[in-house]
Amino acid sequence: xxxxxxxxxxxxxxxxxxxxxxxxxxxxxxxxxxxxxxxxxxxxxxxxxxxxxxxxxxxxxxxxxxxxxxxxxxxxxxxxxxxxxxxxxxxxxxxxxxxxxxxxxxxxxxxxxxxxxxxxxxxxxxxxxxxxxxxxxxxxxxxxxxxxxxxxxxxxxxxxxxxxxxxxxxxxxxxxxxxxxxxxxxxxxxxxxxxxxxxxxxxxxxxxxxxxxxxxxxxxxxxxxxxxxxxxxxxxxxxxxxxxxxxxxxxxxxxxxxxxxxxxxxxxxxxxxxxxxxxxxxxxxxxxxxxxxxxxxxxxxxxxxxxxxxxxxxxxxxxxxxxxxxxxx
Amino acid sequence: xxxxxxxxxxxxxxxxxxxxxxxxxxxxxxxxxxxxxxxxxxxxxxxxxxxxxxxxxxxxxxxxxxxxxxxxxxxxxxxxxxxxxxxxxxxxxxxxxxxxxxxxxxxxxxxxxxxxxxxxxxxxxxxxxxxxxxxxxxxxxxxxxxxxxxxxxxxxxxxxxxxxxxxxxxxxxxxxxxxxxxxxxxxxxxxxxxxxxxxxxxxxxxxxxxxxxxxxxxxxxxxxxxxxxxxxxxxxxxxxxxxxxxxxxxxxxxxxxxxxxxxxxxxxxxxxxxxxxxxxxxxxxxxxxxxxxxxxxxxxxxxxxxxxxxxxxxxxxxxxxxxxxxxxx
DNA sequence: CTGAAAGCGCTTACAG
DNA sequence: CTGAAAGCGCTTACAG
Lengths: 329, 329
Known about the structure:
2 copies of one chain form a homodimer.
Chain A: H1 6-13, H2 17-25, H3 32-45, H4 51-58, E1 63-68, H5 74-89, E2 93-98, H6 105-114, E3 119-122, H7 129-141, E4 146-149, E5 160-163, H8 165-178, E6 184-189, H9 194-209, E7 215-219, H10 223-236, E8 241-244, H11 247-259, E9 269-272, H12 277-281, E10 287-290, H13 293-308, E11 317-320, E12 323-325
Parallel strand pairs in A: 1-2, 1-3, 3-4, 4-5, 5-11, 6-7, 6-8, 8-9, 9-10
Antiparallel strand pairs in A: 10-12
The structure holds a DNA duplex.
């Protein structure tokens, strides 16, 4: 029972292995009676074709590679939720690859290419621009279908599924400006994410358009670190609103502000750019731009299946809608 | 450049493909000069062996299957962090498999087995006991090394890496009892997780030992649902402490209690059993039993590599230490 | 230490 | 509609 092969099935069904293979891959080319007979044996023996052998012979692994910087971030996990759901639906397996910043990116990508995946979903938005370019080149040179998932790279023409983060952040900044706020700060992370650069751009555009100087803070994702920083920051600066790339950073700021005598939202309005569970558990609850991360994962995987099966694609850049969720902050 | 094969390398290095193969797999069996020559060509051509062909020929895929219920939960993501880090170190690729409750578990497992992974890490703690038994049987019948990762199943002898959740919860309950609390509730989820049953057991043991009736609440992980429930609950019940299987549920309870005039921790003490970022962002900050999820992932992967390479294993059940993190709740 | 050859378990033209 | 045979890109005894 450990290893039922196609030969076992062929023998038991008294047909050739070619016929068994056809029953599995091109059933319409097989006489219905023969087909039923073979299917019955397949079921009886609990036969499943060896995916590796099939992969070698057909040169299709029905596996997609998901390349990311860090699995453990909540946003990544949500993306993976959408990706795996759709992958399963289309019968693709998922191989996970991480890219550590210390390692040789080129070597790592070559290894990934050697894994013979049918397509790649690139979630890594922590790469420098030229590294990103190199990674994309390597994948495209190997002729592997590629979709950028929640990652934006404008230097090349690459299929992409994301949010128009620039516009989303522009909108929310504009809204705060219209409410009369002036000292609006934008909190980003020390660590570079390509997406955050686009968010910052939208913020800057709105501020400059309104004739104000953009006010940027960089901070850590670590709560104990950023709370110390925020405390210092509040001593020295006038601030009427804060927009944060991450909800958890926004919540940390709310806590520090409240503890230092500020009222949120009366003294300082605070907005997050994700809409995670943190937003609901914060007090006051966090107003957010909602970014549908699960959907980004699902749509990008669906787009990739189209490329892998050489289907016609009408639009290779998909920007999903977002909305503002008004809460109490 | 799309496809450099072992033949290309052999041709360029003027040796047979067997020698190239040996250079990659048993370099000590090759004359140093020949080896250098081949290695040089390999580098020049950017050759990486086709992982699929290698897998078929060697019957080792150097891939491990990670079987889980839901990728998007924070705890799962943290486990995956530990798993991928160690997998990378030992040069294993990761294939991700999810098990939806609606689908045929047996069929699904057969498919996973057909994927020819060298080992399986089972993270799914949402299965009923007998389904779990069947899954384990299928994997073991196929002779695939298996480690349960943050999942506990005592009906069979299976290698396991986890926390002794029963003891951890027993300890924290005892501590609350020693502080004079009597009406200590235990909040679990409607949804079944094998691990939560062990946590509940530890709680019950401590309560019964102290001569108190165990007080259990089941709730939803959804914030808007559990807050409604908690509000009702507080109207009708006397409560001095709450222990929650999930931090986010504990934080939600703190919010509802505070909004309804209770003081945490003076009126009601609250404890979480995970120690996630939620605990730090809550006000008051949440006291927790800290469960080192990343480490569980890492250690289970390391244990699995031992089984896959037929190394001696001194202990096939590893229960990692936990500690109590005192905060303000 | 090295090469020729068989084989891993499939798929896929090619005949018939 | 079905079977015999080549081939996918490797590994691994087996000779030498």
